[in-house]
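hey so i finally got around to running the thing on that chain from the lab meeting. sorry it took forever, my laptop kept dying and i had to restart like 3 times. anyway pasting the input first so we r on the same page abt which one it is
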Amino acid sequence: MKKVTIQKKNEMIKVKVAHYTLKEILKTADVVRNLKNSPLGIYLMLAPVCAAEHLKKN
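ok and heres what got predicted. didnt touch it at all, straight out
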């Protein structure tokens, strides 16, 4: 029974984090648009994707 509540809490935290990061992404969308053509901008766009893939594997 306790395990289930912990799992639910973890999922709620994940949703909150996802919602927060989405807000941050939307907030920085204009900045990204300006950076898109620069190598740094491309790196910044790819870094979160790479991090997410890395976290999925572990």
